[in-house]
Amino acid sequence: MTSPTEPQTAARVPSAVRLPVRPEHAGLEPYGAPQLDVPVLLNVNENPYAPSDEVVATIAAEVAAAARGLNRYPDRDFLDLRADLADFLAVESGVRVPAEQVWAANGSNEVMLHLLQAFGGPGRTALSFAPTYSMYPEYARDTATRWVEGRREDDFTLDADAAVATVREHAPSVILLASPNNPTGTALPPETVAAICEAALEIEVPVPGAEPGCAVVVVDEAYGEFRRAGTPSALELLDRYPNLAVSRTMSKAFALAGARLGYLAASREIVDALRVVRLPYHLSAVTQAVARAALAHSASLLAQVDALRAERDATVDWLRARRYQGRPLEVAASDANFVLFGRFDDRTAIWQGLLDRGVLVRVVGPDGWLRVSIGTPEEMTAFKDALVEVAGL
Ligand SMILES: *Cc1c(COP(=O)(O)O)cnc(C)c1O
């Protein structure tokens, strides 16, 4: 403590400071959807159902147990958690991978950042196909990786031949494919993913002092659990493509967005490259405990997924049966827990009108479209009533 009698060092306090901000970050704002306090939140694709009391009790007990060891660093390789995640994938998709082929981080956003840190970088290119998840260009920017945006078709599907041609043209080291895609909800058929993986194997990414490497294909299945019956997971392609990584998250179907746990399944070679770039102890003991407790209740946490899929299909049908200014509304086919619909001359006005009625949706995707997340039946009724009023459907 400084006593008043002690002589004070005269510090020169500058009135303004010019920081050495990286030029590609100059003037940028942090990413994020508006977090507004309104009754009906349908803007960030969360699961509307909170964990049950039983799940909460297990999480609390496991966190208490972990707390007793918080003087120590956590398990750096978290193989127990990776084994639990592998067990879950086997049940969910029928594809069994060993724990060593699973990786996890604080949200699948961090998993994908690890992929760009391991396989991107200066002089290299990351490729995706727009419209798609708005975070992808940010992973590229933050790892000084060149960003190339290919195009999806007008119905948001991906033409396999065109995609392969784009891959060959740009020779990326990382290809990011969201399936089901955000914000469109479009899932990719396995033939398309396989064609892109084949083309990626032929790419020659220079590696100074070594043989060139192929391109890595990342299929982001953040919404995988919501896919419609008959839509396979890219996990089924894992044993054929050592350059494929399939990313998942506990944020959406698992109703655990607040826990921050994302993961992927891939070849051992890919996982080993990710272990090099992760910060030591990046996954806290508390996070590991929460995730394992939740995985022990996966059936209960995923119980509402079928209801949400049915509500999604009903929302698509309802929107398709509506007319806006004399034309039927356009509604993208969705394998996710949200629906992209439009097109509105002034989508911001529609968004604001819904917000004024307590319903928050998202202004995202090509001009004229809005995205609504699937909520509870009551929330969807509030959304539909508000939309009828605002858009005069
Ligand atoms: C929501 C979302 C994620 C999940 O992010 P987390 O970091 O796991 O919460 C990943 N990819 C896409 C396309 C998403 O929409």
From TrEMBL:
GO terms for molecular function: histidinol-phosphate transaminase activity; pyridoxal phosphate binding. Its EC number is 2.6.1.9. InterPro entries: Aminotrans_II_pyridoxalP_BS, Aminotransferase_I/II_large, HisP_aminotrans, PyrdxlP-dep_Trfase, PyrdxlP-dep_Trfase_major, PyrdxlP-dep_Trfase_small. It comes from the Bacteria. Residues 40-385 form the Aminotransferase class I/classII large domain. Keywords: Amino-acid biosynthesis, Aminotransferase, Histidine biosynthesis, Pyridoxal phosphate, Transferase. One of its GO terms (biological process) is L-histidine biosynthetic process. CDD domains: AAT_like. Belongs to the class-II pyridoxal-phosphate-dependent aminotransferase family. Histidinol-phosphate aminotransferase subfamily. This is Histidinol-phosphate aminotransferase.
